[in-house]
Structure formats: structure tokens, C-alpha cells
Automatic annotation (TrEMBL), chain A:
Protein name: Fe-S cluster assembly ATP-binding protein
GO MF annotations, alphabetized: ATP binding
UniProt keyword Repeat present: no
Keywords from the UniProt entry: ATP-binding, Nucleotide-binding
Native organism: Ancylobacter polymorphus
Tagged with keyword Nucleotide-binding: yes
Gene3D superfamilies: P-loop containing nucleotide triphosphate hydrolases (3.40.50.300)
Any Pfam family the entry gives: ABC_tran
Recorded family membership: Belongs to the ABC transporter superfamily. Ycf16 family.
ABC transporter domain sequence ranges: 4-251
UniProtKB/TrEMBL annotation, chain B:
Pfam families found in the cross-reference section: SUFBD_core, SufBD_N
Family recorded in the similarity comment: Belongs to the iron-sulfur cluster assembly SufBD family.
Listed name of the protein: Fe-S cluster assembly protein SufD
Listed InterPro entries: Fe-S_cluster_assembly_SufBD (IPR055346), SUF_FeS_clus_asmbl_SufBD_core (IPR000825), SUF_FeS_clus_asmbl_SufBD_sf (IPR037284), SUF_FeS_clus_asmbl_SufD (IPR011542), SufBD_N (IPR045595)
Sequence ranges assigned to domain SUF system FeS cluster assembly SufBD N-terminal in this UniProt record: 30-172
Lineage: Bacteria, Pseudomonadati, Pseudomonadota, Alphaproteobacteria, Hyphomicrobiales
SUF system FeS cluster assembly SufBD core domain span: 180-408
């Protein structure tokens, strides 16, 4: 049984005349695997990530998603997180007035509580954050500030990876984590992600560009177009896409 | 033919008029003030929605019940009820049903430069400081203040000597005690001398579900180059009417900062009048109201810049759950002489309840031509994107809402300088959030 099993997923934007975005998407992800999903703008990549995380702006009309055999779509947003789903946002929001440290601690403890584990002690928590933050070049000042408040684009992405490192999810969905990053920041973020690769953890890396995949080398590459996966292959598929673009897939689907 | 244009007296007004009959005759200034206030009430009665300053808080229709003036409280009950800010290291004075309770008040071993007495004792002794009482006038009829002036017999009279820095806050704990609804009136006076520094806190509480009236007015006379911090915490009972007036006369190059936290009472009105009559002073009037069920809280400010170079800042936050109603009225007046005035006023509301309502009325009245003034008001629900972000990290809905509400209120509470008082207010906000079903 795959860890994450997406089967024939159909979804539309919530509302009476909501546009259908996903039109029969299927994907199986096993522990330890890194899957890259590439595709042109508007193909439904971000929608897929939001639906996995549980955003309420979409309605699933058909198909199923299971995590370790459990129906993911039936779970509340926070329940999914506690089960190990983590979405690294393309545009992380700023949360003024909620200090990053407070947020990290509230998140970690909420997840632990839901899993029936004890809350983390203050010294253990401080040690954990200090250790993980140092690797990502996140300083104490950023941790004291409101979540993402006044962070640069690169800092926001690093903060997302810090959250991921602390929450230790089972399945990481990275939604265009490379957007808005310069080469140096891309390197730091990629190293942060690679450090989290493990035989127990899977990743779905959504990107437009092959560049990110030089740093985070995937096991599988999928091409998404018009709401479904139209081709799958190994990491060499990314290079082919970089050379030829998506035109061929868009024509096929038309 | 002369038509009697007087409105019909409501039972509440009739009861108040009966109470006013007890205002004593006498020749001194204080008695004159009292009689003038009583006459003003007789003429104008309780304000209603056609009185602009009370447009959103129609006291005449809200306050229906006729209640007598409160009698003395039982000491043990007053002690048991005065819970707020107990954890804060402060000199505590308990005012129950409008009268200082000496048994529960710490009036001994005053710091050098601090004098604290009761209004009744000051009157009995003919204390010279009373020449300051009633010295700050709003310049318009204010029913709550008029009733307070006419009927208050006791309260706290504080003076801080010039140059004295009093580290320990003075906390005046107002409490209503008793099983029957009644009206309490307390009048206090705080005179802060030139170059002095002082922190004054007041709290209000009483039994839930009882339609008692707590009317409190405090005058603050702030000398030149003085520094005054005022924190007020209002948690009167759910059925109560809380009518409060704060009056400030601010001298030259002084700093005055207030934070008014309103969580209690069925109907609360807090009026704040400030006259800036000394140049280059800085005032910050901030506050927050957290309301639920059918609570109604009105904050009305009137800041009068009379001289050049003063800075005023106002930041008020409302969190409105269920079908509660928040009102913010703020007026900044800049007189012709008050050039280089810098005034900024902001009111923000977070609406949680489907039937909650916020009324904002900021006003600027500017007669000088070289000033910087601005005001703003916002009103909205919790941002769904923020909620989703927090929940996507595993934080349950209610906790996510609490974190965001706390952050929203925190921006205002953070302006309280005294650590102990600020922490106590944060704790009260947390308790409020925890009490949400």
C-alpha cells in the first residue's frame, strides 16, 4: 500500500459555477520517495497542494485520497497536519503579533497533543529550534518577530523549511518553493530539504523549473496538464522538459 | 399657549431625580458644583440617540430600571469580590459601592512624596487640594459626569509631590457588593506634581446578572514635565451599567499614557476628556474592548489641543463576538493656536459574531493650519488565509482564532509600560478567550 494514494481525483472551485481544476488525477507516493510535479501555469499543481492540506475553497467531486489507508479528505485541516501532511506554501502569509517562536511551539504541541504525545519541554524546544535554525541561517531576531513579518522572499521560504524541520512531517508538499529565490537562497533551502530526506518520509516537489531539481534530485518526475498527470518518468524527464517546454503536452491534451 | 416640551421622565430618571433631592445645601464651592450638576441633570435627563455624543448608546432607553443609591457594602463581601489585579505588586485601595473601605485599603507607610486620602476625609478636613476638583470641564453636558458630580460622596484623592517618582503603582479596586441592584458613585482626584512620575490603576467588578450601576469619574491634573500612566480594567457584572469618565488636564512637556480595557458590564460607556494646555506634551490614549453575548461598550474620546507642539496618539481595538456591539467615537480638536500639533487616531475592530456590530465615528476639528492629523477605522472578520496557515500547521480552529485575536489585541496591550500590569491584562485577555465556548 502506498503511503499517499491519490486516485482519480476530481475537484472544482467551491461554489455553484466553480471551475473544475483537477480532472482525474492519480498518484501513488511511497515512503522515502521524492516526486516532482511539473507543468505549465494553470495546470492545477497548486490546487493539488491546497486540496491535500485541506483548504476549504475547493470541492472534491470524485476520487479519493488516502494517507496510510486513512481517508485524508475526511480530516480537518489540523488533523491532517498532525497525521504528517505538511504544505510549504508558495506565498507564506505574514502573521503580525504572533511571534515565530510562539507559533512553532503552538504548532508542535498541538500536533503532539493530537497524537497523544506529551508537550515538549521548554529547554528541549529551545534546543531543537536553535539547532535547526542555525542550519538554515535563521537568526534569533527572526524567531522573535511575528511569523514572516518583514521577512524577505528568501527568508519566508527558509522559515517554511524550518517549520518543516521542526514538525517532522511524513509527507512534505513543497509548492514552488523555488519561486522568488536567488541562487544562494535556493542552495540553502535545497540543503534544508535534502537534510529532511529519509526512508520514512516522502516529498512532492511542485515546480515550474528544472533548476530546483538539480538541487533536490527527484526519484520520479510527473508532468501535469489540465488537471491530470499526462506523463511520468525518472529525473531525466525534467531535463527533457527544460529543453522542449510543455508545448507538446498542451497540444496533446487539446 | 405654552406646550410642555419636557419628555416624560422614565422610571430610571425619576429614581435619579429622587436621589438628587438629597444633594445637601451649603455655601462652599463643592456644594455649588453639585447643585449645578444636579440642575443640569434635571434639565437634560438621561441622554438618548438624538444627542449626538450618545447616538449609539441610547442611555435613556437602555437604562430602564429605577435603582436607589447604594448603601455601604459588607467588608467581607467586598474583600471576596475584589479579585482583579491582585497578583500585581501595587498599593491597593478598595472602593466598595462608591466608598473607600479602610479595612481593605493600604493607606499606611506612604512613599515619600505620595499622599492618599479619601474624598470624604478631604471634604471633612477642608483639604486645599479640593480646589482642583471639578477643575476640568468637558465643555458640554455629560449626564454620567453630572450625576457623578452631584451624587459622589467618596473616592480617592491622591497627590504626588513635584519631582517624586513613585515606583509602585496605586491600584484602586472598585467593587459592587450586595444582592440588590443599586447605583454607586465614586469620584477621585489625582494630582501629579511637576516632574513627578506615577502609575495609577483602577479596576471594576461586581456580581453577574444584577442591573447595578457603577458610575466612576476620575480627574487627573498632570503638572509640567510629569509622567503619568493610567491602566483601567473594567470587568463589571454582566447585567451592570458601567459609566466612567476620565478627565485630564495636561501641562507642558509631560507624558500621559492610558490603557482602558473593557471586558465586563452589560452596557459600558467610557468617556475620556483631555485638555492639552501645556506645549510639547505627548499623550497616548489606548484601549481595547472584548465583548460577547449582548454586551455593549462605548468608548468616547475628546482630545482638545489648545497649545502648540503636542502629540496625541489613540489606538483602540474591539473584538466583538456573538451579538455584541462596540462603539468608538473619537474627536480631536486642534485650536487655532495649536500649531505643529501631531494627532493620530486609529480604531480597529475584529468581528467574530454573525450578529455583532461596530460603530466608528472618528472626528477631526482643526482650526490651525500647520498640523499633522489623521484618523482611521477598520472593521473585519478574522482573515481566512491566516486561519488556514495556522491550521495547516496543526493548530486547531479555536486555538488558531485565539492566537490571532490575542495578536490583534496585543498590539494595543503592548503599549502598557508597567510589566506587571501589562502581564495581568494579557492574562485577562487569555481568560476571556478561554471562556469562549
Amino acid at each position: 500500500m502506498a503511503m499517499l494514494d491519490i486516485d482519480n481525483l476530481h475537484a472544482k472551485i467551491d461554489g455553484e459555477h466553480g471551475k473544475e481544476i483537477l480532472k482525474g488525477l492519480s498518484l501513488k507516493v511511497n515512503p522515502g520517495e521524492v516526486h516532482a510535479i511539473m507543468g505549465p501555469n494553470g495546470s492545477g499543481k497548486s490546487t493539488l497542494s491546497y486540496i491535500l492540506a485541506g483548504k476549504e475553497d475547493y470541492e472534491v467531486t470524485d476520487g479519493s485520497v488516502t494517507l496510510d489507508g486513512e481517508d485524508l479528505l475526511e480530516m480537518e485541516i489540523d488533523e491532517r497536519a498532525a497525521k504528517g501532511v505538511f504544505l510549504a506554501f508558495q506565498y507564506p502569509v505574514e502573521v503580525p503579533g504572533v511571534a515565530t517562536m510562539t507559533f512553532l511551539r503552538a504548532s508542535l504541541n498541538a500536533q503532539r497533543k493530537k497524537r497523544g504525545e506529551a508537550e515538549i519541554s521548554t529547554p528541549d524546544f529551545l534546543r531543537l529550534v536553535k539547532d535547526k535554525a542555525a542550519h538554515l541561517g535563521i537568526n534569533q531576531d527572526m524567531l522573535k518577530r511575528g511569523v514572516n513579518v518583514g521577512f524577505s522572499g528568501g527568508e519566508k521560504k527558509r522559515a517554511e523549511i524550518l517549520q518543516m524541520a521542526i514538525l517532522e512531517p511524513k509527507i512534505c508538499v513543497l509548492d514552488e518553493t523555488d519561486s522568488g529565490l536567488d541562487i544562494d537562497a535556493l542552495k540553502v533551502v535545497s540543503e534544508g530539504v535534502n537534510a529532511l530526506r529519509s526512508p520514512d518520509r516522502a516529498m512532492i516537489v511542485i515546480t515550474h523549473y528544472q533548476r530546483l531539481l538539480n538541487h533536490i534530485v527527484p526519484d520520479f518526475v510527473h508532468v501535469m496538464n489540465k488537471g491530470r498527470i499526462v506523463r511520468s518518468g525518472g529525473k531525466e524527464l525534467a531535463l527533457e522538459l527544460e529543453a522542449n517546454g510543455y508545448a507538446e503536452y498542451q497540444q496533446d491534451a487539446a | 399657549m405654552n406646550a410642555d416640551i419636557r419628555p416624560i421622565r422614565t422610571p430610571a430618571e425619576q429614581a435619579i431625580l429622587a436621589s438628587l433631592g438629597t444633594v445637601p445645601e451649603g455655601g462652599d464651592r463643592l456644594a455649588d458644583l453639585r447643585r449645578a450638576a444636579a440642575r443640569a441633570f434635571e434639565e437634560n435627563g438621561l441622554p438618548h440617540r438624538r444627542v449626538e455624543e450618545w447616538k449609539y448608546t441610547d442611555l435613556r432607553s437602555l437604562m430602564r430600571e429605577a435603582v436607589p443609591v447604594a448603601g455601604a457594602a459588607a467588608v467581607a463581601e467586598a474583600d471576596a469580590r475584589a479579585r482583579l489585579l491582585r497578583g500585581v505588586e501595587a498599593r491597593r485601595i478598595v472602593v466598595a459601592n462608591g466608598a473607600v473601605v479602610p479595612e481593605l485599603s493600604d493607606l499606611a507607610d506612604l512613599e515619600s512624596g505620595l499622599t492618599v486620602t479619601t474624598l470624604s476625609a478631604a471634604i471633612a478636613a477642608g483639604d486645599e487640594v479640593l480646589s482642583r476638583l471639578g477643575g476640568i470641564q468637558p465643555g458640554r453636558y455629560d449626564a454620567a459626569l453630572a450625576l457623578n458630580t452631584a451624587l459622589a460622596k467618596d473616592g480617592v484623592v491622591v497627590t504626588v509631590a513635584p519631582g517624586a517618582t513613585i515606583e509602585r503603582p496605586l491600584h484602586v479596586a472598585h467593587v459592587f457588593a450586595g444582592a440588590h441592584a443599586a447605583a454607586s458613585y465614586a469620584r477621585s482626584l489625582v494630582v501629579v506634581g511637576e516632574g513627578a512620575a506615577f502609575t495609577y490603576a483602577e479596576s471594576f467588578e461586581g456580581p453577574d446578572g444584577l442591573a447595578y450601576q457603577a458610575n466612576a469619574a476620575t480627574e487627573f491634573v498632570v503638572g509640567d514635565e510629569a509622567h503619568l500612566d493610567v491602566v483601567r480594567l473594567q470587568e463589571d457584572g454582566t447585567g451592570a451599567f458601567h459609566l466612567a469618565t476620565m478627565l485630564f488636564a495636561v501641562g507642558r512637556e509631560s507624558k500621559v499614557h492610558t490603557f482602558s480595557f473593557s471586558l465586563g458590564a452589560g452596557v459600558a460607556r467610557t468617556s475620556l476628556y483631555a485638555t492639552l494646555s501645556g506645549e510639547n506634551s505627548h499623550v497616548g490614549f489606548n484601549g481595547a474592548s472584548l465583548l460577547k453575548n449582548r454586551q455593549h461598550a462605548d468608548t468616547t474620546l475628546y482630545v482638545d489641543h489648545q497649545v502648540p507642539g503636542c502629540e496625541s496618539r489613540e489606538l483602540f481595538k474591539h473584538v466583538l463576538d456573538d451579538s455584541s456591539r462596540g462603539v468608538f467615537q473619537g474627536k480631536i480638536v486642534v485650536r487655532q493656536a495649536a500649531q505643529k500639533t501631531d494627532g493620530r487616531m486609529m480604531s480597529r475592530a475584529l468581528v467574530l459574531g454573525d450578529d455583532a456590530e461596530m460603530d466608528n465615528k472618528p472626528e477631526l476639528e482643526i482650526f490651525a493650519d500647520d498640523v499633522q492629523c489623521g484618523h482611521g477605522a477598520t472593521c473585519g472578520a478574522i482573515d481566512d488565509e491566516l486561519l488556514f496557515y495556522l491550521r495547516a500547521r496543526g493548530i486547531p480552529m479555536k486555538e488558531a482564532q485565539s492566537l490571532l485575536v490575542q495578536a490583534f489585541v496585543g498590539e494595543a496591550v503592548e503599549t502598557v509600560e508597567h510589566d506587571g500590569l501589562r502581564e495581568a491584562l494579557v492574562e485577562r485577555a487569555e481568560a476571556w478567550l478561554a471562556s469562549r465556548a
